[in-house]
Design goal:
The complex is a heterodimer of chains A (215) and B (10). By secondary structure, chain A is mostly helical. In chain A, 69% of the residues lie in helices and 0% in strands. The N and C termini of chain A lie far apart (40 Å). Chain B is elongated and about 15 Å long. Classes of the chains: A mainly alpha (215), B mainly alpha (10).
Chain lengths: 215, 10
């Protein structure tokens, strides 16, 4: 474990806590894409299939459980919580994410560490995570004004993978024969997809104005 | 063991 990876995991955890806070405090999920939350639930379930078979550390197992449980809890809230579900932007959150799931799985069948069920699903989860934010970014563009907690959620969600890239560089430089081509390539694509969001987030922070993404 | 080596990250 190095400081970049720890910062990445803590940033990722923070983003999830911010989203839970937003939904709990405002009893609303306006501005949040349920499709992105469902994609993230799929990402965590298929990435952590080894949750019960491979024990790496208490930290690793604990975080995996937190990620799976929180993503499922958020999807449950947005679908079934009597108050929260009413504020879901159903008519704006229309990204047809079936193609993202299909393309990620197709790519995983071609490019994986090993051709086994667990490894193909692991690669699938890596590719899917790279594009999982797209429905959320589209929703932000369509919904105009973005509330602070939702903006912070997306910001830290994008930042965590940037820390992971620093972690991969650090490990590549310090550990012999360390390579993470699948996660690394996908992580760069994932972080790049946030580029314009980061730009408008920085502008809103500098001008102390409301975050606004151009339609 | 090598599987644990390259899936040690979240």
């Amino acid at each position: 474990m190095n400081v970049f990876r720890l910062a990445g995991d803590m940033t990722h955890l923070l983003s999830i806590l911010l989203l839970l806070l937003k939904i709990y405090a405002t009893k609303s999920c306006s501005g949040v894409s349920r499709k992105t939350q469902e994609l993230y639930a799929i990402v965590f379930i298929f990435r952590y299939l080894d949750l019960f078979t491979d024990f790496i550390s208490v930290y690793n197992t604990f975080m995996k459980v937190v990620f799976i449980a929180s993503s499922l809890a958020i999807v449950w809230c947005m679908r079934f919580h009597p108050v929260v579900r009413r504020s879901y932007d159903r008519e704006l959150d229309t990204f047809r994410y079936f193609f993202l799931v299909g393309a990620s799985f197709a790519l995983a069948l071609i490019w994986h560490e090993k051709f086994s069920v667990q490894e193909v699903f692991w690669a699938f989860s890596i590719y899917l995570e790279a594009v999982a934010i797209l429905p959320q970014l589209v929703l932000l563009q369509r919904s105009g004004n973005v509330d602070n907690l939702t903006g912070q959620y997306v910001f830290f969600l994008g930042a965590y993978r940037a820390f992971y890239i620093l972690n991969w560089i650090y490990r590549y430089l310090t550990e012999p024969r360390f390579t993470r081509w699948i996660a690394g390539t996908s992580g760069v694509v994932q972080t790049a997809l946030y580029a314009d969001f980061f730009y408008y987030y920085f502008i809103s922070w500098k001008n102390n104005s409301k975050l606004k993404l151009p339609a | 063991l090598n599987k644990i080596l390259y899936h040690d990250e979240l």
